[in-house]
């Protein structure tokens, strides 16, 4: 490497006062050598710098060859590498390395990371009553370690790359060699390599830049903050994308049915899990169609209601100045505002404000004759049902589509709802996620792969992986019906 000018480096760094520079004159072999040391304050462990680097540089080596780096044999802390480019030097500097410029022509990088990482804690959004409680952190190395603790196999491979011209964010592709589909893996590599952006600050950047359908309301990439969920997805032959600085790990390909499953489904017995899934799908049906059915029936199809119920609803709506659609729209928008406000408010008062606001506003709206009591009940049940969806991004998609179905119901009644459902199903069946049909194993229908969809069969009965995802090795196990040996 050509001569390295420290002044040029300081100017490149803007003479920032958080970059600590030190210069030493080292005497050994009858010669005097210049060593420049610098690091980013706050990113390195300064105690280790003092104990293992600065004190070692002070040792005299009178009888050594001048081409050697005598202190390297004594250095006992940090990973040492010789850097051949200034770009790598700057990246290592801001990754918590100490940079040594030896004799103005050799750059040594010593890992002395001192950033305080958040401790592994309980998952905040994917809570379970039975199962592991740990979740990912913002450190990519901690996250890879959490997954490796679940899958102790040399076939669990990791590929690293840096994305973002300014942020140089570390991104890792994790997969199980021999199970993952080569086509899916190559597609992931190609899409990541095509990203051209200044910065990646969260995995959401990656998701938006490599997803399949940019204008679909449905997510085509799954994300989780739970190591056990990611380990399970890897065992299915999927690819995980880990991004430094975020506790949410992406998984591809993501099927529609995957967003309806919870980690706890696999920790309870199959009959319990299947019952919970049935309740979950009923809740999803209510969250999607509840207000729409109410609007359509009360506006166009009153003959479908029992006489006593119809008389009661008519009495409630007497004096209401708005049609059912406007009534539902007001209540839905109000609830969405309350939900968002509850998330943004300080934690100590957010829950209280949400509860009080919902009760007070709902009761006051009924007393003022703005909305009917039946509409408050329908919107409340719909809002509660939307929380049964385990994946937050799919829950938001359902809430968005609910407004469109409400408009169709107000315009065409049940015919509009049926038209909207047909359009929704056609759209879902047209989607693909990294080459895999989004609605598989239902579209195309593969009977053998439906053992873990609407219901979950026992683990001993699920012997095969999904064929459209893991094409290299579809055998998961070969267990028999459990019980005493006969």
SSE topology sketch:
Layout: H1 6-12, E1 19-28, E2 31-40, H2 46-57, E3 80-83, H3 86-93, E4 97-102, E5 106-111, H4 140-150, E6 156-163, E7 169-176, H5 182-193, H6 203-210, E8 222-224, H7 227-235, E9 239-243, E10 249-252, H8 270-299, H9 307-317, H10 324-344, H11 347-367, H12 373-385, H13 392-412, H14 414-430, E11 432-433, E12 436-437
Antiparallel strand pairs: 1-2, 2-4, 3-5, 4-5, 6-7, 7-9, 8-10, 9-10, 11-12
Provide a descriptive summary of the structure in words.
The mean pLDDT is 85. The protein has 486 residues and is of the alpha+beta class. The longest helix has 30 residues, at 270-299. The chain has 14 helices and twelve strands. It is elongated, with a radius of gyration of 30 Å. The strands form three sheets. The chain has a five-stranded antiparallel sheet, covered by helices on one side.
What key attributes describe this structure?
alpha+beta; 14 helices; single chain
Distance between the termini: 75 Å
- Strand arrangement within the widest β-sheet reads 1-2-4-5-3
Low-confidence parts, pLDDT < 50 over ≥5 residues?
Answer: none
What string, H for helix and E for strand, traces the elements in order?
Answer: HEEHEHEEHEEHHEHEEHHHHHHHEE
Considering DSSP H and I runs of 4 or more, what fraction of the residues is helical?
Answer: 40-55%
Radius of gyration: 30 Å
| SS summary, helix count | 14
Calculate the mean pLDDT score and round it: 85
Structural class call reads alpha+beta
Biggest sheet details = 5 strands, antiparallel
| Global outline | elongated
The tally of strands reads 12
What amount of the residues lies in strands? 5-15%
């Amino acid at each position: 490497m050509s001569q390295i000018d420290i002044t040029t480096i300081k100017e490149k760094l803007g003479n920032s006062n958080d970059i600590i520079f030190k210069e030493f004159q080292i005497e050994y072999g009858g010669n005097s050598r210049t060593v420049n040391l610098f690091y980013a304050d706050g990113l390195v462990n300064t105690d280790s710098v003092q104990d293992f680097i600065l004190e070692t540089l002070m040792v005299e080596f009178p009888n050594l060859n001048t081409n050697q780096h005598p202190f390297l044999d004594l250095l006992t802390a940090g990973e040492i590498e010789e850097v051949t480019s200034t770009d790598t030097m700057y990246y290592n500097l801001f990754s918590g390395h100490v940079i040594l410029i030896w004799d103005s022509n050799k750059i040594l990088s010593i890992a002395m990371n001192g950033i305080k990482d958040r401790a592994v804690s309980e998952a905040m959004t994917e809570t379970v009553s039975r199962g592991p409680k740990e979740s990912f952190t913002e450190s990519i190395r901690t996250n890879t370690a959490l997954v490796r603790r679940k899958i102790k196999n040399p076939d669990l491979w990791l590929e690293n790359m840096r994305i973002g011209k300014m942020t140089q964010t570390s991104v890792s592709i994790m997969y199980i060699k021999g199970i993952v589909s080569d086509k899916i893996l190559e597609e992931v590599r190609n899409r990541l390599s095509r990203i051209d952006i200044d910065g990646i600050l969260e995995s959401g950047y990656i998701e938006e830049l490599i997803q399949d359908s940019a204008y679909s309301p449905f997510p085509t990439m799954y994300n989780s903050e739970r190591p056990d969920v990611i380990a399970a997805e890897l065992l299915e032959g999927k690819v995980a994308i880990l991004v430094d600085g975020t506790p949410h790990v992406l998984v591809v390909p993501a099927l529609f049915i995957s967003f309806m499953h919870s980690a706890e489904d696999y920790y309870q017995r199959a009959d319990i899990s299947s019952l919970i899934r049935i309740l979950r799908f009923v809740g999803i049906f209510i969250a999607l169609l509840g207000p729409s059915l109410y609007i359509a029936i009360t506006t166009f199809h009153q003959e479908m209601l029992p006489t006593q119920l119809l008389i009661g609803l008519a009495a409630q709506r007497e004096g209401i100045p708005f049609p059912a659609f406007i009534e539902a729209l007001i209540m839905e928008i109000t609830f969405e505002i309350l939900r968002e406000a509850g998330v943004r408010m300080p934690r100590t008062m957010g829950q209280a404000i949400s509860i009080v606001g919902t009760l007070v506003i709902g009761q006051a709206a009924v007393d003022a004759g703005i909305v009917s009591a039946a509409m408050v009940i329908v919107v409340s049940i719909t809002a509660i049902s939307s929380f049964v969806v385990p994946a937050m991004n799919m829950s938001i998609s359902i809430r968005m589509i609910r407004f469109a179905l409400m408009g169709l119901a107000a315009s065409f009644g049940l015919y509009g709802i049926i038209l909207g459902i047909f359009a929704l199903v056609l759209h879902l069946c047209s989607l693909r996620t990294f080459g895999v049909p989004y609605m598989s194993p239902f579209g195309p229908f593969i009977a053998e792969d439906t053992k873990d969809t609407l219901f979950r069969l026992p683990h001993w009965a699920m012997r095969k992986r999904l064929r459209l995802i893991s094409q290299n090795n579809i055998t998961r196990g070969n267990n028999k019906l459990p019980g005493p040996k006969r």
